[in-house]
Amino acid sequence: MLGSIKYNLTNLLNFKGRDARQTFWFYVLFLVVIQYAVGMVIAMPMMGGIMKGAFVAAQQGATGADMNARVMSQMAGYMRTSMTLSTIVSLTAGLLLLASFARRLHDSGKPGWISVLTFLLSLTSKAIVWSRMDEIVSTMQKVSADNLETAFAMQSKMVAASLLGYAAILIVIIFGVWPSNPGPNRYGEAPVRF
Questions:
Q1: Of 99, 113, 103, 133, which Cα lies nearest the Cα of 193?
Q2: Averaged pLDDT, 102-122
Q3: Where are the alpha helices (DSSP H) in 110-158?
Q4: What is the pLDDT of residue 66?
Q5: Rounded distance between C-alpha atoms, residue 23 and residue 9, angstroms
């Protein structure tokens, strides 16, 4: 596993050659673990602030509806920061995966440009969400326990962005598990497995 990670990190700009499934998936696992760990580091202080606000409101005798409104307002305040950091982490992981995915595509005889199209799908998904950031934050500030329809309406507007993001992940999964070409192919010799 460590050999796969080291190999991919030293070949971040190498779009030539082939990567075996095992090499590719160990590297993907590494990127996913890192992405989730960074996400937790980002989310913990924000969630701590939200929980502290809820406890203070409870100690002051706030009603359930008032506490819900305060929590949603605090979440809306953190939303822009959270989405910005999440987008940076996600796009960084996508860039780190680009060359490895191209080599994995080569291993199964597919052109590497599919990796660029996949990254562009993910980028488009993030751009759609980012273009609606003000609307998302505004909606979160208006949501209450009695009025969840506002949140559901906002979610329905974001379906296209979600589908593009999931399409990118699905393409990586499908082509990532695609069987390797045995022996040499037009992209090079059979890859070394780590």
A1: 103
A2: 95
A3: 113-131, 133-142, 149-157
A4: 78
A5: 12
Residue length, the chain? 194
Q: Is the pLDDT of residue 143 over 80?
A: no
Give the single-character DSSP code of 180. Answer: P
> Helices H, strands E: what count in the chain?
7, 0
Closest to 18 (Cα-Cα) out of 103, 96, 125: 103
Q: What residue segments make up the domains of the chain, in order of their start?
A: 1-177
Alpha-carbon span 178 to 194, nearest angstrom:
18
Rounded Cα distance between 66 and 73, Å, is 10
CA distance 83 to 76: 11
Lowest mean pLDDT among 14-18, 141-145, 147-151: 141-145
